[in-house]
Structures are given as C-alpha cells and as structure tokens.
Amino acid sequence: MKERGGGGTCLNQHYCCIAWASRGFCSSNQSYMRQYCQPSCNFCSGSSPPALWNSQTCVDFSPNCAQWFRQGQCTANPNYMSENCKSTCG
C-alpha cells in the first residue's frame, strides 16, 4: 500500500504508527516507518490522507512494558504483550 508515483495509496498500515511517529521513530527507524507509516511521518506525496487509527489504540497499559520488552517478553509471551503493551511490542 505504498504510494508509487501517481496513483498508489499512502496509508498507515499499523495501528501504532501515530504513536511511534510521536516518539521519533520516523527518524530512528526510517526504513520501517517509510514502508508502513507514511502518513504519520509525512512521507506521502501530494495531499496527506487521514490516519486510519487513533493513537489512543496504541498504548501500554502497564508501566513495566519497557522492562518486559528488554527481557524478551514480546516474543516469549506474545498474546499478553500484544494486548497490554501495544505501543512497546506492537
């Protein structure tokens, strides 16, 4: 769903794009963000389409998410982490 020249679509393809963009990922992880989060990073040519997801849908519900991420819990416990640590684990 990347915009290509004159006719493709330019859409956020992940519900956390807006949150990630606000945390500076457009610069620190530009390759991924250019592919999946073009509107949130202003990578679209032409007029900007509306974002598909509200940044409120991509939140961590625990203050421990960053610590758990460092401990590998996003992969070791993906069901819990993807639901409760959406911003950290996606």
UniProtKB/TrEMBL annotation:
<keyword id="KW-1015">Disulfide bond</keyword>
<dbReference type="Pfam" id="PF01549">
    <property type="entry name" value="ShK"/>
</dbReference>
<dbReference type="InterPro" id="IPR003582">
    <property type="entry name" value="ShKT_dom"/>
</dbReference>
<feature type="domain" description="ShKT">
    <location>
        <begin position="10"/>
        <end position="44"/>
    </location>
</feature>
<feature type="domain" description="ShKT">
    <location>
        <begin position="58"/>
        <end position="90"/>
    </location>
</feature>
<feature type="disulfide bond">
    <location>
        <begin position="10"/>
        <end position="44"/>
    </location>
</feature>
<protein>
    <submittedName>
        <fullName>ShTK domain protein</fullName>
    </submittedName>
</protein>
